[in-house]
């Protein structure tokens, strides 16, 4: 459990507030001032006089120790106030913090039962562990598996629960668990997803266990107490198949008992608790009767019940004895003179009467029964002993194939129930002391009982009789009951009442567990089960629990139900062990259990045993349990578990992330491991009423690139003072909106809202790019959208366009790859496109353009498009050879693409190139003037004087591309350049300026025009065009011309992705 520092006011503690805190007054006892917590001179924790200071002490005990301890007050006269000027109450105490469970607040208002170790943990746990399986299956296990393998089976079961008890003790004592029991402990340590999954499995375990106990009780009732109640007669008691008549009896009577128990539980928990002591007393007396019977049979061997044998065949007594004759007279009918016996033998061809014997089935400890019971037989279905087929109508046989793991699956439910003390945590006086002591003591006690009873059965009962599962050789009597002293009815009545009481306990606790899960509100479908009646009874949960228990009863025999119960409990125990191991290995600061006798290796061994038992007994059931757990986990994760419980899974994720980051070297990655780590930057205005489509489309584009499996960080630049509270609140709101939008477009990554002042954009960008990321996990690719330019804005220096140029410049100078989306408003979101994606191979960039196209094609949006690589060749290139080399290169990269080679002709510089270059110069000059208002005013005055001249004419010829560029600007600034501040009106001036143009700029403009013409001719109908982004200038002065070149290059192209690498991200052909 995590701890937090919580200030507690004196009014909450019931202490009158004094008028001052600096000295003792009439209203402030001197003891209160003397004993008040003092703040250490070094600013550390308050020092407590007399004993070491602890954060997790009990507040009530402190108040009882000294009512005036917390009279110390903060206020105007507080000596801390001059340094800490906040309006806060001084820290009187530090309370241990534990996350409240679903019923914590209601339970805290009620008076606790204050139970101790014996009544609160030890006896309830023993009552839950000792049950029907011990009475009707342990002796049969000894007869089938022998004492050696039975001890091994018990060792596996008890060792599994013992190790789990150690883990439970550690987890339960790590903090305060006021109520909520095992589910609270698991969920608060595993988190909402795993906690809910394991909680549901724990609920199902208790629900199905209800059915197991009831069917076990019906078996005792029909076979041993009232056999005449069997529908179909006593002769159908061996028909235990899935559709056998005895299985139908279990279903019918089990349903009747379930309805009866439903009525009792519906009346309230008080009626259930009234039967608990009765059930426990019956179990204890029955166990003592078994021990006493073993001793009595040893002291008086003739007192043991006899059985009839023919060689090694154990004969069913009902076939050789008349109705109404007691089993004690069986020897009178087990002789060669008994006509009924001889008739049955002659029918089967067994004519050797010398093999008939009536032997003592309970010879006692002094006999050789112990030696005979050491070995195993493991008979298959229909056999009376290993590899010997039985006559089902005459002798004892096995109704199921028996193996070691089959017996393990049947018997494991007998050792469950170790979490009972944890479920009682809300009523314990000192849970952190009672739970470890009581739970481990109860487990050790029951383990001793199981081992000792197995030894008693193996030493006092003959092996043939131990294999008689249903007591057919005893005229329908229970094998263990005939051993009991002084009378068999002590064990018969006690075992039946124990099953009835255990089923009541499970049927009572399961709905409350379901209500606790529903109250946590992590599984929306369970919301109706969080409601309770006026008597605080979860009636809705009781109804669904009864229905599930009825479905389990329909499975038939107890052995079938027990196998299902195993896996629910084993999954729960496995996760408890994993919790302890996880916390121990992580060594988190909040892992400080008071129970210190634990180790992570023991917990891992316990978890391993749980999974071993699951998969070794019924691997198919184990897979179903794991699948069910994972399904619930994914459901809770899908619905969004908005709970933060400081759980171990998140601690594991944090530790794993830290370990992985430390393993990644903060150096250049190998080209094989290179992947685009996106840093998505945008600085668009935010509005509650209007959503910017460019921003959402940019997120969609980043989501469509997620096939790269790289890091994605989305940063929004917000103008505002980072030190102002309003700006910080606005940034948090925007960040939440970004996270919501990222979730909507299924973009997994991180969102960040960055505040900057008007003159801080450049520094903020540089700082962000240099510092974002951790170690080797840092963004390497900038994803930007083409800006909207507003040259007439009074705030042009802080406009989106200016911010875009800053981003571009910063990315270039910091060695990042650049991906710029132009025409972002036309980019698709969820519409599946068909057509072509064209990658223009203008320069060798290491294949980054090709990689981006490949990643986009992995998205369902672009999957239907065909990839084309268009290589731009010059007149001196060998086109055929170039195409062949590209084809080989693409094949080695394992990318399917069509190769096209286009020649860039017309080397003559056109007049249009000069015109566009001149227009670019005018625009650049205008932008510089905009940044200097004085020079701008002078230029405007000069323009007005020129405009008054009579010889004015437009510089650009109508109909030329330059004219279109001047008059058309769309949202992304796609269709040309802005109109400059003034036009060149004098032909002489124009010719002079054309002659003075920089030849380099004219050549670049000419190349841009030729490439644009080539793109429009080949990709006019393509869905997307990817172009190499030309090298950006290192200095800001050249960015205006650079942007103009890009606009000309992509003029009238619908969707463009400009891509530029750094040369390090070379795509390799190796795997």
List keywords for this structure.
Amino acid/polyamine transporter I, 7% strand, 1071 residues, 3-stranded antiparallel beta sheet, Rossmann fold, disordered N terminus, alpha/beta
Structural write-up:
The structure is a single chain. It contains 34 helices and 15 strands. It is an alpha/beta fold and 1071 residues long. The chain has a ten-stranded mixed β-sheet with strand order 8-7-6-9-10-15-14-11-12-13, with helices on both faces. It has a three-stranded antiparallel β-sheet with strand order 2-1-3, with no helix packed on it.
Instruction: Describe the strand arrangement of the main beta sheet, using strand numbers.
Output: 8-7-6-9-10-15-14-11-12-13
Number of strands: 15
**C-alpha-based Rg, rounded:** 42 Å
According to CATH, the fold-level topology of the domain at 114-299 and 404-460 and 489-617 is Amino acid/polyamine transporter I
β-strand amount? 5-15%
Quickly give the CATH architecture of the domain at 114-299 and 404-460 and 489-617. Up-down Bundle
Number of helices: 34
């Amino acid at each position: 459990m995590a701890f937090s520092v919580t200030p507690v006011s004196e009014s909450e503690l019931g202490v009158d507030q004094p008028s001052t805190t600096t000295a003792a007054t009439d209203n402030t006892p001197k003891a209160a001032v003397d004993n008040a917590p003092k703040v250490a001179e070094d600013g550390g924790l308050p020092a407590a006089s007399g004993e070491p200071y602890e954060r997790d002490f009990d507040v009530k005990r402190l108040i009882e120790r000294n009512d005036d301890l917390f009279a110390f007050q903060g206020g105007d006269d507080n000596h801390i106030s001059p340094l800490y000027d906040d309006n806060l109450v001084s820290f009187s105490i530090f309370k241990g913090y534990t996350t409240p469970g679903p019923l914590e607040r209601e339970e805290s208002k009620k008076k606790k039962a204050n139970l101790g170790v014996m009544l609160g943990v030890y006896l309830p746990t023993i009552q839950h562990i000792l049950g029907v399986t011990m009475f009707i299956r342990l002796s049969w296990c000894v007869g089938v598996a022998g004492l050696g393998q039975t001890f091994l089976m018990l060792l596996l079961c008890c060792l599994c629960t013992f190790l789990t008890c150690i883990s439970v003790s550690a987890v339960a004592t790590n903090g305060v668990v006021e109520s909520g029991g095992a589910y609270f402990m698991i969920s608060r340590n595993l988190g909402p997803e795993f906690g809910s999954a394991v909680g549901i499995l724990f609920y199902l375990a208790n629900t199905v266990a209800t059915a197991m106990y009831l069917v076990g009780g019906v078996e005792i009732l029909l076979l041993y107490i009232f056999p005449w109640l069997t529908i179909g007669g006593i002769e159908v008691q061996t028909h235990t198949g899935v559709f056998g008549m005895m299985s139908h009896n279990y279903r019918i009577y089990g349903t009747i008992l379930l309805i009866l128990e439903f009525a009792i539980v519906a009346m309230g928990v008080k009626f259930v608790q009234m039967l608990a002591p009765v059930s426990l007393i019956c179990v204890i007396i029955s166990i003592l009767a078994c021990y006493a019977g073993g001793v009595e049979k040893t002291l008086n061997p003739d007192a043991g019940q006899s059985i009839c044998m023919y060689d090694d065949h154990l004969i069913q007594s009902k076939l050789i004895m008349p109705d109404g004759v007691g089993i004690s007279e069986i020897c009178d009918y087990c002789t060669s003179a008994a006509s009924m016996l001889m008739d049955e033998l002659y029918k089967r061809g067994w004519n050797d009467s010398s093999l008939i014997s009536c032997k003592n089935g309970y010879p006692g400890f002094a006999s050789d029964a112990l030696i005979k019971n050491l070995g195993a037989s493991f008979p298959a279905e229909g056999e009376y002993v290993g590899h010997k087929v039985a006559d089902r109508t005459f002798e004892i046989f096995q109704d199921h194939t028996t193996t070691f793991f089959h017996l393990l699956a049947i018997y494991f439910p007998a050792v469950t129930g170790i979490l009972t003390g944890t479920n009682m945590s809300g009523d314990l006086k000192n849970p952190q002391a009672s739970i470890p002591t009581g739970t481990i003591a109860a487990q050790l006690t029951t383990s001793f009982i199981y081992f000792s009873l197995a030894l008693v059965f193996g030493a006092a009962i003959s092996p043939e009789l131990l294999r008689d599962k249903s007591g057919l050789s005893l005229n329908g009597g229970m094998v263990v009951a005939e051993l009991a002293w002084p009378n068999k009815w002590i064990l018969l009545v006690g075992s039946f009442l124990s099953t009835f009481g255990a089923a009541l306990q499970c049927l009572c606790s399961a709905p409350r567990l379901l209500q606790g899960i529903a109250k946590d509100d992590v599984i929306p479908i369970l919301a109706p089960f969080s409601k309770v009646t006026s008597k605080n009874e979860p009636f809705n949960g009781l109804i669904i629990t009864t229905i599930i228990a009825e479905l389990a009863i329909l499975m038939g025999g107890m052995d079938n139900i027990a196998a299902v119960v195993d896996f629910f409990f084993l999954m729960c125990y496995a996760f408890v062990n994993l919790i302890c191991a996880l916390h121990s290995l992580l060594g988190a600061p909040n892992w400080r259990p008071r129970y210190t006798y634990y180790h992570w290796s023991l917990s891992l061994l316990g978890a391993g045993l749980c999974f071993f038992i699951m998969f070794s007994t019924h691997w198919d059931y184990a897979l179903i349990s794991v699948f069910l757990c994972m399904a619930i986990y994914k459901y809770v994760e899908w619905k969004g578990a908005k709970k933060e419980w400081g759980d171990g899974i998140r601690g594991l994720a944090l530790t794993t992330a830290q370990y992985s980051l430390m393993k990644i070297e903060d150096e250049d990655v190998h080209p094989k491991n290179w992947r685009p780590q996106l840093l998505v930057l945008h600085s668009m205005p935010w509005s509650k009423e209007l959503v910017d489509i460019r921003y959402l489309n940019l997120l969609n584009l980043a989501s469509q690139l997620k096939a790269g499996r790289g890091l994605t960080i989305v940063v929004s630049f917000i103008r505002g003072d980072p030190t102002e509270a309003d700006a910080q609140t606005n940034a948090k709101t925007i960040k939440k909106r970004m996270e919501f939008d990222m979730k909507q477009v299924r973009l997994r990554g991180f969102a960040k809202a960055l505040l900057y002042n008007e003159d801080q954009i450049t520094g903020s960008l540089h700082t962000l790019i240099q510092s974002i990321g951790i170690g080797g996990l840092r963004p390497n690719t900038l994803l930007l959208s083409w800006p909207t330019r507003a040259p007439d804005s009074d705030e042009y220096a802080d406009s989106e366009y200016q911010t875009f140029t800053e981003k571009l410049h910063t990315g270039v100078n910091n060695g990042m790859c650049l991906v710029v989306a132009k025409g972002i408003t036309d980019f698709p979101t969820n519409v599946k496109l068909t057509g072509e994606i064209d990658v223009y191979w203008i320069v060798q960039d290491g294949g980054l353009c090709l990689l981006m196209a490949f990643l986009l094609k992995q998205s369902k949006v672009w999957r239907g498009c065909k990839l084309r690589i268009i290589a731009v060749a010059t007149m001196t290139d060998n086109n055929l050879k170039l195409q062949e080399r590209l084809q080989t290169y693409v094949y080695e990269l394992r990318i399917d693409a069509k190769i096209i080679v286009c020649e860039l002709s017309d080397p003559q510089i056109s007049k249009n190139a000069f015109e566009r270059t001149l227009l670019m110069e005018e625009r650049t000059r205008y932008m510089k003037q905009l940044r200097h208002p004085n020079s701008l005013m002078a230029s405007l005055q000069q323009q007005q004087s020129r405009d008054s001249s009579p010889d004015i004419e437009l510089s650009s010829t109508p109909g030329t591309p330059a004219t279109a560029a001047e008059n058309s600007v769309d949202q992304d600034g796609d269709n040309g350049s802005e109109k400059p501040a003034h036009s060149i009106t004098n032909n002489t001036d124009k010719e002079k300026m054309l002659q003075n143009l920089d030849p380099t700029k004219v050549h670049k403009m000419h190349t841009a025009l030729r490439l644009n013409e080539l793109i429009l001719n080949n990709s006019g109908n393509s869905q997307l065009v990817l172009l190499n982004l030309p090298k950006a200038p290192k200095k800001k002065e050249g960015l205006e011309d650079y942007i103009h070149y890009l606009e000309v290059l992509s003029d009238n192209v619908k969707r463009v992705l400009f891509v530029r690498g750094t040369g390090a991200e070379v795509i390799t052909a190796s795997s």
